[in-house]
Amino acid sequence: MKVNRIQATFLIGFILLGSGVAFVMITDYYETEAVLKKQFEKIDFSNIRVTAITGNSAIVIGTTSIATYCEVEYGIDGKFSNVASDSDMMDMPHTEHLVTILDLKPDTEYTYRFKAVLDGQIFYSDPNFFVTSN
Q1: Is the pTM of this model over 0.85?
Q2: Cβ neighbours of residue 90 closer than 8 Å, sequence gap 6 or more
Q3: What does the pLDDT average to over 36-51?
Q4: What is the Cα gyration radius of the chain?
Q5: Where exactly are the structural domains of the chain?
Q6: In this structure, which topology does domain 45-131 adopt according to CATH?
Q7: 107: left (phi > 0), else alpha (psi -120 to 50), else beta?
Q8: Distance between alpha carbon 47 and the CA centroid of its chain, in Å?
Q9: Which residues touch 55 (CB under 8 Å, ≥6 apart)?
C-alpha cells in the first residue's frame, strides 16, 4: 500500500494593508491512501499433448484457462532455443491451442513447454518431452 501526501491550499481571508491587499493562505497536507493494485490472473495449462509425431514435425495441443496468445518453446538437451507459434490464432486470443513444430531432426528428444503472455506477465506450462520418429 502506498501513501501519498497531497497538498491543499485554502484562501481563508485577506488583510487590508495601507495601500494594498494581502491574501492569507494556509497550506495543509492531507494523507491519502492510494491503492495501486493490479491483480494478475494466473493462466493454467491443461490437456497438453503431442500428436502426429514424424521424423521432422510434431503437433503440440493444449488448453489455457484464460483466452490468450500462446506459443511453444522447444529444443534439445533441455534448452528452449526455438519457438513455434499457435497457427490458428487469427489475431484473436483463445483457450484451445494447436502448434505445429517443423524442421525437427529424426530420432531426437525435444523438450517443450507452452508460453502465454497476459497483461505483460509471462506464464509457462510444465516442461515435457517427445521423441521424433526415424
Answers
A1: no
A2: none
A3: 76
A4: 29
A5: 2-34, 45-131
A6: Immunoglobulin-like (2.60.40)
A7: left
A8: 21
A9: 104, 106, 107, 132, 133, 134
Separation between Cα atoms, residue 129 and residue 114, nearest integer Å: 12
* Beta carbons within 10 angstroms of residue 59's beta carbon: 17
Which residues are CB-contacts of 82 (< 8 A; sequence separation ≥ 6)? 73, 74, 75, 101
Q: What is the mean pLDDT of residues 55-81?
A: 95
For the ranges 48-62, 80-94, 113-127, which has the lowest average pLDDT? 80-94
Q: How far is CA 78 from CA 28, 50, 57, 81, in A?
A: 61, 17, 18, 9
Q: Residue 12's pLDDT band (boundaries 50, 70, 90)?
A: low
Q: Which H, E and C letters describe the chain, residue by residue? A: CEEEEEEEEEEEEEEEECCEEEEEEEEEEEEEEECCCCCCCCCCEEEEEEECCCCCCEEEEEEEEEEEEEEEEEECCCCCCEEEECCCCCCCCEEEEEEEECCCCCCCEEEEEEEEEECCEEEECCCEEEECCC
C-alpha cell at 91: 489475431
CA dist 110 and 74 (Å) reads: 6
